[in-house]
Amino acid sequence: MSHILLSAKMSSTQKVLLLGATGATGSSILDGLLETNQFDVEVLVRPGSVEKPSVQQIKNRGVPLRVADLNASEEELVSTLQGIEILISAIGPHDLLQQKTLVRAAKSAGIKRFIPCAFITIAPPQGTMLLRDEKEIIYNEIKRLELPFTVIDVGYWHQISFPCLPSGRVNYAALVPNTTIHGDGNAPNILTDLRDIGRFVSRIIADDRTLNKYVYTWSDILTENEILNIVEELSGEKIETQYESVQEMEKQLEDAQSSLSLDPTDPGKRTLVYITQYIYSKYVRQDNQPRYAKFLGYLDARELYPDFKPISFREFFTEVLDGKAKRPYGY
Question: pTM of the prediction?
Fold first, then answer.
């Protein structure tokens, strides 16, 4: 009898293939999928990445690898995707358009749900963020082909949302040491702990309510001033902040876009545009908040899963103060 029950459980397990598992977002997704017993998880890697230590670490966890070049033909990618029910892409920002052939292959392979690489702040579908514009090209290809999908956005991470302290004791966890307040510091922003992204994803992809929908995750909605107050309260230190005006943010954005126009393929210049557009969208337009997400038609993951207890910003920063946090990307 137990053998029959086990077989039934195994047959109901959904087969998931994850692309980009070695990145920050992809690693969180992999952890979230493996924490549950709902999924049979495999990882898609490029031929040139198979021997990398980060990929070998995944293999050592017992996760099977499927090896494929994303520039391969659609036919080859269809073969790679055989037997997969859910395909998740956490591809890097400079490679987003490589998903085009993957989308077509997913349709031909009968993928039941494709999760394209989203996982950013709430923003308009066009004209505000180059990063979102390029993601939207993939979303539109998905819709053109009528491929079942879910778009998941996560706001901004806790891990890149805290100011540094005069003592320097949290610098070890900071991607870029920073004490800048943008505008008046009162723009509300959706925040999610990086570690919770995978936990949210594992719920969202198993939920029929999220099929062909946009979903956003969050643990806190905080302004920069509110974050500053939490950091000062928990640390006992007073932070000397610098204020950046709307005009200064607009000038930085204009300069970054002008520089990129001279060399559109330069990844460093593209990254600078991404960063300045994030800042403009979050603090000038104030896009990254629940009100605008609901206007755009997003579902709220916290409303979908009221029992889910995400890591709050306060909990996260307590870990930072205790020396237990990790710097994003491990730099």
Answer: 0.94
